[in-house]
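Hi P.,

Sorry for the delay on this. The queue was packed all week, but I finally got your sequence through. Input first:
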Amino acid sequence: MVSWNNMDSLKSFDELKKTTPVDLAKVMTGENGAERVKKYSVPMAEGMAYNYGAKAVDDTILDKLAAFADEAQLVDKFEELYNGEVINTGEKRLVLHQLCRGQLGNDVVADGVNKRAFYTEQQAKIADFVKKVHAGEIVNEKGEKFTTAVQIGIGGSDLGPRAIYIALENWAKKTGNFKMEAKFISNVDPDDAAAVLNSVDVAHSIFVLVSKSGTTLETLTNESFVKDALKKAGLDASKHMIAVTSETSPLAKSSDYLAAFFMDDYIGGRFSSSSAVGGAILSLAFGPD
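Then the structure:
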């Protein structure tokens, strides 16, 4: 049975504390450094690699970390996560962001809904919408293609998607996967929204409003700045905006948006980038694939 004891209560934690820190300046120098970079690298999809050579670890520390993971029942906890057990013990809530990232684990039914099917359906809806935007089937009020996507969010509705966009922008341009420029508005200071709006052609911009509750004050305040800018440009805001929200929020069926894509309480903000929170803006920027 999985135990959720504090990590510092584990014997292996005490053993880990006894290890000597690695002198990175020494181990990363010269030929030894080059070999270390090769050794501490894990291949990933699309030719990418996770390299941890610049982390303060060595074989001894890695062995002790592995023992620590075993005693902490890390693999067992991952299995519970993937199979829909209550992992958020503080709020007694399921944690389901992994269902947006692959097909491992069993189907998870919560609130009478197959959540794997729900998230997959949202991904398909986003892909269909985005393909129509890129193909010029969904256009602005004047019948012209959108060229820029702007996300309006705060916290987890901004940081993750923004970081991924920055990380992948140059790669996408080099590999032919770049579709649209993306911008982000998050700071409630009007200067932030003004700076972004001044940097784009609002007539050819599609705005992605992200608020799980549909009542996030900071996000709705920034939305009002955007709507004012569209109005001043003589544009109908409802022809330039989509919403990412929950099915029960006031935004879900509002006529103020071209489309609405849904998330729920089982995906926390900091883990939401692979849900509709990041899926919409990143698919617009790089394509749904």
